[in-house]
Amino acid sequence: MNYTLLTSKSNERLKRIRKLEDRKQRHREKLFVFEGAHLLEEYVRAGYTPAEIFVCDDAVEKYGQLIESSGCPEVFVLPRDVYKTVSSEQAPQGILSLCHITKKEKVEQTSLVGSLLLESVRDAGNLGTIIRTAASLGIDKIFISEDCADLYNSKTVRATMGALFFSDITVVPDLCVVVNAIKAKGGRVFATLPAEGAKVLGEFELFPTDSFAIGNEGSGLSEQLISACTDSAIIPMSGRTESLNAAAAATVFLWEMARAKK
């Protein structure tokens, strides 16, 4: 494999990486960037090939085998001071991958039931953590609204710890359409909110075909989505706190979904 040395901080390839910090630019070019060896290992394990790899000159030997196994067609070696100009990490490992966006943006009418729906989850760390948790518990199907944090934000990608590359995630303009499609297939969708008459988690039977909708960290779910859902559900709380954050709440609901699927 050939390695190309880049020593100029104003190199056009490096300028492109910096521009990809912008969400619109990422989706315009259908490219995103992530750092670290573990994420690259997971990306390759998921069957993908990075478009380009950038590695520090003092880390080439350390990551040589990983780079070779990635099948990446173009690898660039950067001096440490140049690498830092494209890194968003406080303590960069010295390896950065440029990859193609592959996620779907069209709802398929199969395997809709037993899904997780996320509306307006704006915190990238929360979104990434939820994706990681869902993958860990075997919940494969996730639908997210367009105004959620970007899947390809570096913080989101890092928080998924590679689960992003294996998960079945669809970005949709209207989650109500998904809810109605699930209901048409005989599935129930529970809006997660402390509404009057909400079912208490653990006190009613869950089925493998049940789905849950989780909303914004501050304002929760929209009235439109709540109205579209079959029912509402709540986590039993001690009363010492008013609520859980989105990622923590999602973990509880995902655990119950996983139990129902056994």
Could you characterize the architecture of this molecule?
- This protein is α/β, with parallel strands linked by helices and 262 residues long.
- It has 2 domains: 3-100, 60s Ribosomal Protein L30, Chain: A; 116-261, Alpha/beta knot (3-Layer(aba) Sandwich), CATH 3.40.1280.10.
- The chain is 35% helix and 19% strand.
- The protein is built from 10 helices and 12 strands.
- It has helices at residues 12-19, 23-29, 37-45, 60-70, 80-83, 124-136, 154-160, 175-184, 223-228, 246-261; strands at residues 3-5, 31-35, 52-56, 75-78, 95-100, 116-118, 141-145, 168-172, 189-192, 199-200, 211-214, 231-234.
- The strands form 2 sheets. Strands 8-7-6-11-9-12-10 form a 7-stranded parallel beta sheet.
- Helix 7 (154-160) links the parallel strand 7 and strand 8 (168-172).
- Helix 6 runs parallel beside helix 10 (246-261).
- The longest helix has 16 residues, at 246-261.
- The radius of gyration is 21 Å and the shape is elongated.
Topology record:
Elements: E1 3-5, H1 12-19, H2 23-29, E2 31-35, H3 37-45, E3 52-56, H4 60-70, E4 75-78, H5 80-83, E5 95-100, E6 116-118, H6 124-136, E7 141-145, H7 154-160, E8 168-172, H8 175-184, E9 189-192, E10 199-200, E11 211-214, H9 223-228, E12 231-234, H10 246-261
Parallel strand pairs: 1-4, 3-4, 6-7, 6-11, 7-8, 9-11, 9-12, 10-12
Antiparallel strand pairs: 2-5, 3-5
Helix pairs in contact: 3-4, 6-7, 6-10
